[in-house]
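hiii so um. not sure if this is the right channel but i have a protein structure encoded as tokens and i wanna go backwards to a sequence. like what aa goes where. can anyone help
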């Protein structure tokens, strides 16, 4: 068997660094109170709205409905651009509908947060690794908002800027910023309704599923979680910890891919590892072949020989 090791700062250098500027830093208690209000609003309030996601030249528009009843979260997310896709979530149970392909996929929500619920449940560590400042007030989607800037205290994570409704705390706009203050990605509501008018019926799927016309893909059944993959990551930057390690099959074949996620609660790095023999082409900049003879600058312990593809997203 082979044990492999990756040097996380080298992986982070692929895309996690930077800082942004704003006003004087907030005291820890005030910063955590503001962040907690934003985090609670996204999970506890009823709301519906249309938001735009931008990343480079990519622009996507989506509609979201979030409804809470009896301590349970229900959510409906549908794309408004390109191929139709609809995601229905009941707490951590997720159904993804692809009407063009007549496929519905059953899965569990794993280590992923979606706008406007971008903040983690545990916030205490964020003030250790980010300096938090108030910025300008701005009107977004018909609501008055207060902006907060999260400036990283080191070069291992991006900066963030959040605009939240001053009354409810709901996140209305979120921006990730590079070390040069360039926008890496952005979410922004163009229209939103908070509270009254949001009902349980609004989070029901839009499609009348009939089998065998539709195919059910129980993707979660092909997932093996809580595994010891044999891979370790060394020299982890302060605040980052492993929140996920699993093996799951790729769509369309039975190859098992190792998936690890490291996060400081806000920034996250996903690492995907698969045998090189299973891939016909490697996308430069996203994948690397590691031959574990200490090439590519990785700290690796060689107990066997094996070619792997390592893909890092952050």
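sure thing!! here u go:
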């Amino acid at each position: 068997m082979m044990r492999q090791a990756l040097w996380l700062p080298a992986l982070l250098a692929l895309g996690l660094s930077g800082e942004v500027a704003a006003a004087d830093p907030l005291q820890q208690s005030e910063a955590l109170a503001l962040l907690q209000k934003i985090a609670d609003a996204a999970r506890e309030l009823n709301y519906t709205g249309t938001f735009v996601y931008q990343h480079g030249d990519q622009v996507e528009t989506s509609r979201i409905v979030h409804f809470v009843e009896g301590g349970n979260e229900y959510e409906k997310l549908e794309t408004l651009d390109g191929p139709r896709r609809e995601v229905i979530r009941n707490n951590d149970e997720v159904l993804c509908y692809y009407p063009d392909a007549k496929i519905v996929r059953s899965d569990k929500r794993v280590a992923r947060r979606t706008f406007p619920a971008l903040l983690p449940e545990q916030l205490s560590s964020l003030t250790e690794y980010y300096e938090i400042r108030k910025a300008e007030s701005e009107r977004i989607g018909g609501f008055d908002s207060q902006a907060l800037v999260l400036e990283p205290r080191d070069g291992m994570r991006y900066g963030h800027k959040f605009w939240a409704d001053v009354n409810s705390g709901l996140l209305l706009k979120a921006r990730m910023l590079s070390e040069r203050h360039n926008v890496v990605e952005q979410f922004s509501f163009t229209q939103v309704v908070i509270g009254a008018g949001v009902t349980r019926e609004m989070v029901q799927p839009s499609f009348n599923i009939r089998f065998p016309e539709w195919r059910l893909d129980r993707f979660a059944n092909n997932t093996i979680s809580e595994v010891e993959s044999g891979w370790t990551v060394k020299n982890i930057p302060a605040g980052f910890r492993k929140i996920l390690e699993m093996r799951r099959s790729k769509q369309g074949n039975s190859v098992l891919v190792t998936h690890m996620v490291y996060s400081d609660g806000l920034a996250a790095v996903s690492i995907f590892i698969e045998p090189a023999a299973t891939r016909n082409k490697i996308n430069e900049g996203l994948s690397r072949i590691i031959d574990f003879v200490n090439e590519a600058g990785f700290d690796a312990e060689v107990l066997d020989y094996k070619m792997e593809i390592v893909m890092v997203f952050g």
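oh and Residues 4-13+221-313 form one domain.
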